[in-house]
């Protein structure tokens, strides 16, 4: 895999900075990964966001991680998920122009999973990965639930987000996601990042098409 390419693209609040991670071979898909909460030191360099990008690379996608508005060199300020959703869509659109006609995948961690869930209803997402989604943010938001293959990964020792709240929310959806539970894993998956990566790869690797 080539080194990450630093990129700048335009968002609704100004310029956004990103890191583009390319697979070894020609890209069969494009992917965007959303990082955790900006006010809690979340950034595109977060280890879980990094691992999601690597998993997407393993599956043949070129992946864009980016900083939400107000993080790092990205312009703007925190906007409680609304502006951040616009940032995610700007990232998707920028990458879609760069790789026209390529299937789109989306992923996110914690707050980023919430943003990914908001963004997926606005674009034709073909695969979705949400890791430890901030479900307390989803209660008051009317979301169009995904219709694409959707993997939800949750540690059952999460000390930030209630695992049971995640399980209850997911299982009560009209079309529940595929749920992968990492036993003993905390919110940041310390010591379990390779297992997290492999979980994503194994779930989607049976599909050798470009969906």
Q: How would you describe what is shown here?
A:
- By secondary structure, the protein is α/β, with parallel strands linked by helices.
- The chain contains 5 helices and 8 strands; from the N terminus they run βββαβαβαββαβα.
- It has an 8-stranded mixed β-sheet, with helices on both faces.
- α1 (47-58) packs parallel to α5.
- It is globular.
- The two termini are 22 Å apart.
- The mean pLDDT is 94.
The 3D shape can be described as: globular
Percent range for helical residues?
Answer: 25-40%
Query: Strand pairing plus helix content: what structural class?
Result: alpha/beta
Secondary-structure element order, as H and E?
Answer: EEEHEHEHEEHEH
Mean pLDDT: 94
Strand content: 15-25%
Describe the sheet with the most strands: 8 strands, mixed
Uncertain segments are none
Count, helices = 5
Give the radius of gyration: 15 Å
Strands in their spatial order, largest beta sheet:
1-2-4-3-5-6-7-8
End-to-end C-alpha gap: 22 Å
Tally of strands: 8
């Amino acid at each position: 895999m080539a080194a990450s390419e630093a990129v700048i693209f335009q968002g609704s609040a100004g310029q956004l900075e990103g890191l583009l991670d390319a697979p070894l071979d020609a890209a069969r898909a494009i992917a965007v990964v959303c990082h955790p909460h900006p006010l809690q030191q979340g950034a595109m360099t977060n280890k879980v966001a990094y691992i999601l990008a690597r998993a997407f690379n393993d599956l043949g996608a070129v992946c864009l991680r980016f900083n939400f508005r107000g993080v790092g060199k990205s312009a703007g300020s925190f906007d409680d998920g609304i502006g951040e959703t616009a940032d995610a869509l700007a990232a998707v659109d920028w990458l879609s122009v760069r790789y026209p006609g390529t299937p789109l995948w989306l992923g996110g961690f914690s707050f980023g999973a919430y943003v990914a869930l908001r963004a997926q209803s606005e674009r034709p997402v073909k695969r979705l990965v949400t890791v430890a989604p901030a479900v307390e943010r989803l209660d008051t938001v009317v979301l169009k639930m995904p219709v694409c293959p959707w993997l939800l990964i949750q540690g059952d020792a999460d000390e930030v987000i209630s695992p049971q709240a995640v399980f209850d929310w997911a299982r009560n959806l009209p079309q529940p996601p595929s749920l992968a539970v990492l036993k003993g894993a905390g919110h940041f998956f310390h010591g379990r990042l390779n297992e997290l990566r492999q979980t994503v790869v194994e779930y989607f690797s049976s599909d050798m098409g470009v969906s």
